[in-house]
Amino acid sequence: MLRAVLYKEKELRIEEAPIPEIGDDEVLVKNKVSTTCGTDVKIYKRGYPLLTPPHPFGHEYSGVIAAVGKNVKKFKEGDRVAVHNTAPCGHCYFCKKGQFSMCEDMLFNRGSYAEYVKVPGRIVEQNMFKLDDTISHKTASLMEPFSCAVYGIDNCPIQQGDTVIVNGAGPIGLMFARLAVLRGGKVIVSDMKENRLETARKLGVWKTVNLTGVEDAVAALCAETENERGADVVIEATGLIGVWETSVQMARKGGFILLFGGTKGGSVLHVDATLLHYSQVTIKGVFHTTPLHVMKALELLKMGVISSDDFIQNEYPLQELETAILEHAEGKVIKNCIIYD
């Protein structure tokens, strides 16, 4: 089979490899669609602290089961499936506290840019789902990132009629924006790419702000709120530390700020202690997702809450993965996908 391997920053190779052999509790999936992701872009450009190259690349996909281990009872060969890339242990301190995204033994399964993917037993049990004919593989491949937005929005105290600012109109930011609209929020989205802001408008947001050439993003966004007081809820979805800091300043007194976009290692957040104390703002960081929110995300995808037509622009063969990644990195698309025979 063919698979993608990242040897070092910006050195991505498509290689021949044996089709994986599976254990008794595992499943082999023949890939149909893999989607590009902002995390893939970050790893391609700057590496990742938890991964030592060379390593398999990618984590969003959907396909058809090619083989099942003898202990697997819920799935069979030929089933169409959506597969998440992680599963918590369920036994550590954090899992027992219900904080599954903080699991001390989180299982990560990487290597979705490949013709076949071996799915570990823990993921088979917790985070793999059979698909019916109402949902396409393209849409199902959005389950992983969408589950992160579903988890993040569950942490936001959005009430009907609240003003919600979403900073960043990449895939995750757009997913947050759509979910905030469905919560009844008056959603304002900022970005510097007009194509992304156009997608935000298609998803029902109240207003978009193009920050290209804008010197004071805080003033520009707060000017769109009632009496310029700032938003009830601010969601950061860029992963840039400067946007983390400006997001904190966009909330009203007593407001809430969700910092979701993962920043570069070593980044330090500077917050005005006077603002934090006297304005009583709440700042919360949220990471990844949980099995509950993966399940919720798939149900929402089946309902058509978001569509692959809005999120996935171009199709490429695996051999052109680097082109797909770079196009994503430049902001020319929301996402691209790799299609397999």
Describe the structure.
By secondary structure, the chain is an alpha/beta fold. Helix content is 30%, strand content 27%. It has helices at 38-46, 93-96, 121-127, 137-140, 143-154, 171-182, 194-202, 217-222, 241-248, 273-278, 291-302, 308-311, 321-329, and strands spanning 2-8, 11-16, 27-35, 55-56, 61-68, 80-83, 86-87, 107-108, 116-119, 128-130, 163-167, 186-191, 207-210, 231-236, 251-259, 282-285, 312-316, 335-339. Strands 3, 5, 6, 9, 10, 17 and 18 form a seven-stranded mixed β-sheet that branches. Strand 14, helix 9 (241-248) and strand 15 form a beta-alpha-beta unit. Helix 5 packs across helix 11. It is globular and about 60 Å long.
Summary of the model, kept short:
The chain has 341 residues and is of the alpha/beta class. 30% of the residues lie in helices and 27% in strands.
Task: Please name the defining characteristics of this protein.
341 residues, alpha/beta, Rossmann fold, 2 domains, 7-stranded mixed β-sheet, 30% helix
User: How much of the residues is beta strand, in percent?
Assistant: 25-35%
β-strand number: 18
Mean pLDDT: 97
Shape label = globular
Rg from Cα: 20 Å
